[in-house]
Amino acid sequence: MATQYHINAERFSEHLLEIKLKFQAPQNQFSLWLPAWVPGSYLIREFSRFVEQVRLIGVDGEPVDQLLVKTSKNNWQVEAPKDSELTVVYQVYTRDLSVRGSYVDAERLYLNSPSICLCVQGLEEQKHEVLLSVPEAMSEFGFACALEHTKSDDQIHFSAPNYDTLIDSPFELADQQRFAFEVAGIPHRYVISGRNRANLERLKVDLQQLCGTFLHWLPDTNFSHYLFMTIATSSDYGGLEHQHSTSLITPAGDLPGASEPKLPSENYQRYLGLCSHEYFHAWWVKWVRPTAFRTPDLSTEAYTRMLWVFEGFTSYVDDLMLYRSGLIDAKSYLKLVEAQINRYLQTPGRELQNVTESSFDAWIKLYRSDENSINATASYYNVGALCALCLDLMLRESGHQLTDLIAEVVAESKQGADLTEARLDELFSERLGARWDQFKSAHIDGAQELPLEDLLAKSGVKVVADTEDLELGIRYTEESTGLMVNRVMRGSTAVHAGISAGDLLVAIDGYKASKTILKSSLTLDRVDIHFFRRDELKTTSLTPDQTQFKKLKLSVGSADDLSKWLSCSWSQQ
Ligand SMILES: [Zn+2]
Q: What is the pTM of this model?
């Protein structure tokens, strides 16, 4: 008997799902458990906090409470004769609009199974079936899921060969627009919901070209079909990778417009970059992975020091592939690289935390950023992408390419190997020799400044150094009541004057605090600043100045040298 989840979404307006779980008892005593995190997103999300009223139902249809006992935050212990057919009912509150949780209302049902499907301990490897009752209000909606499904007016049915596949296959029931294309014999589907005016014909052409370039580079895949699922909203942004699909959330303004120029707008480049990022993850994370992600315990953190390789290389490859697929030109590509570099240069925390530490602490730092993050942490996405850039440029000086190295790693994963730190060491050592050891100790195990200017200048890029100025060393938001301080740089004038994140500056030099007044105060010797901290009025005085960060401007220097970097060993389509 397969493990079955009957999902009823009739109470969509309360964001409630009623779930009936039917299965055969694997033992006389076993547990039901729910993941605490979803693969691909390294934060303990405690999905079980949304689970309500878990009840074991007896043969007479009544709950038998004494046989089901909650034993921890996400575990319920059940006692029942082995092989007996059991039913457990429960409710889940679903109002998480991100791609990592579940959501239901009158307009959309989007479910990520790790947040709603209790797992029966001991049955993980067996078939799991989902029967979704479609509320009448949703009977006209389209359905999307990477798993094959059947759909009638009032029910959708699909199954997964095991629990891991089930939780790697999110599904959506909504008013959708869609298109399909095939690349290298692999069917690709695209589904979008949410208010949008996207030019889907243009998107189809571009996406097909992008996927084609990936498949030209990495023809072996661990997916036989692929689904892009997008929800358009006003401003949310993010994505989550799965083996046969990706879930994306994007500002509708990032989608291509009716008269999208041939060179995509910066907004549209951002969306294409997101598609590129998540698509590459099908190889790089879903196939090539660190050992910690092979069979992780989803109740607790799965630590790895290699997220800089997995997310960082992906963040390098995503934009590079926009260029290699011909969707953007070299000038636009350099602009994306420039933005990545300037994010790095404006994060003082890069000097305190290296990329392996950033990877290891993803669970408590990157996914839980706060006002102190910029001072004390570095992002393994950002610094990892720039490490990949430096390594690619160094490899090219020795006649190699990072994309070839990646292809070799993918081939090894096809044989079942995980990517370990030791193997990574070998791969770079073979190609870069002592230069790799130096780079590793300075920039990976250490946190020394990356040699970006030097490497880029040798690769045909004109690099001009400039500065980014931050008045008083604070980042703030201008509000009608004054300037709300979001972050304060360590060692800045503001810190020494006793100003902290969370303070509301209300007056500068006797004038109502505004961006203009703050800027014009820079010429004064000394000013009084009035601010509220926890609703108490405070005063301080300081000599206004600026914290200066270095920033780089990149442009095409030598087109010949640049093409040596940006060309690839595998020919363009
Ligand atoms: Zn990613």
A: 0.96
